[in-house]
Amino acid sequence: MRGITMLCIVLLATLASSAQEHFTRADSLRGNINAPQRVWWDVIHYDLHVTVNTEDSTFSGFNTITYKVLKPDTLLQIDLQTPMVIDSVIQDKKSLPVTRDGNAWFIRLSSPQTKDKKKQLTVFYSGKPRVAKNAPWDGGIVWAKDEKGRPWIASAVQGIGASIWWPNKDVQSDEPEAMTINVTVPNELVDVSNGRLKKTIENGDGTHTYVWQVNNPINNYDVAVNIGNYIEMKDSYSGEGGKLELGYWVLDYNEEKAKEHFQVVKPMLKCFEYWFGKYPFYQDSYKLVETPFLGMEHQSAVAYGNKFKMGYKGTDLSGTGWGLKWDFLIIHESGHEWFGNSITSKDLADMWIHESFTNYSETLFTECQYGLKAANEYLQGIRKNIKNDVPIIAPYGVNAEGSGDMYYKGANMIHNIRQIMENDEAFRQMLRGLNKTFYHQTVTTKEIEQFMSNAVGMDLSKVFDQYLRHTTVPTLEYRFKGQQVQYRWVTDVKDFNMPVKVKLSDNGYKLIYPGTLWRSSSVTLTNMKDFEVDKNFYIHTKQVQ
Question: Which residues of the sequence carry a binding annotation for Zn(2+) (predicted)?
Fold first, then answer.
């Protein structure tokens, strides 16, 4: 997702903390994925048309929504945020009455809505979309200028929602099976959106329209406009799904920089396909698009704004040195193609599914390039960014995000599970299995937890509970009694039972199985002071008498 800084972590923590204290009707209207006006219809296709006026920063257009009727109803909710407005709604050539409740618009349908039938609805809209205050964390539309003073415009709306700039069913649980994105801009500018460029239409009025076709399910916040003086560099990659077309869209004066810097893409794709399975969007290609903000995981059109630097804006988030050997934004945001874009959480509260696995993709890329030792060091280094402030999973149904710890702490939780498995090939197959089982699907935390428990052969529910739903870190208390070491877990979760590796002999680490009551193992270390816990586990330890 959004590139990670301490600002991001603090912002997410503040939002999560305040969100848990108070929720409004507007929060429920936006976040309730089971609302009656949403659940009776299933989005099949969006045909979005938008004209971007660079003179007055307005958007206008229409979205034709094809949907399947799951059960008959007459009231349908569409989301569009102020100051944007819905001008009219048409179905079967009839104008329909619309009422508004904040950012939710309720459409009263007059045509028969017959179960299992497909229907179309066209929503016309216009206005000045919210300007991003600090994209991508406080999002909206970015209106910028490039180094030559020319317009450079982009969308960045994760969390705050795609309904910032276009009307849709703004929940993650219902993705269209495909989408067409038509963006009209002045002749001197180029639009880059998701999927493949189907055609460019010359309108004869000083504008032209770029028509992009997305051939896979796509979540709303991934739908993007990127408008500027772009040039495209084409390449291809031979991967698990055959030939993958690569497109690098950068400002015209950055072509040479990009040629050199983007060489990391192919080894990255090779690494991620090894660990996660085939790239999920071969039909739609892989693109990197230079943007006036830091970055976002826009599906098949990854937003890139790291200014061709290594690390995160030239810094190493791990403090180990390994994070400066690759471009953080390319690696992290591309990792989201598997976790976040192909596998998408139904509720924003479960965003750890996106961020924890994608954060761990940084560790896996480090391993692919520099070996396991380097990867472990990087993973342990990022722990310094963990806040343990509020739970990683937020309240459901109110469009709330949990703690920013979903990045670093979530990745360390996954690494814990890898250590428990003691079999890197089995761990790899679990990650690939996740992407095969939930390919192009929306999911819940429960589904991911159950899948991983089955793959590990152990009920991991207490591990997930402790790391995702509590703020404290499990503490392993231990004490020595003669040639024995006694140990127990001190945690929030009753009967917490995570295995952990410790050094009990001179032969290295071995899994032990602590509970919340004292247990013991024999120790054959030459020096009892050499007893230690494997640093690959993110836990606290405390020796007691």
Answer: 332, 336, 355
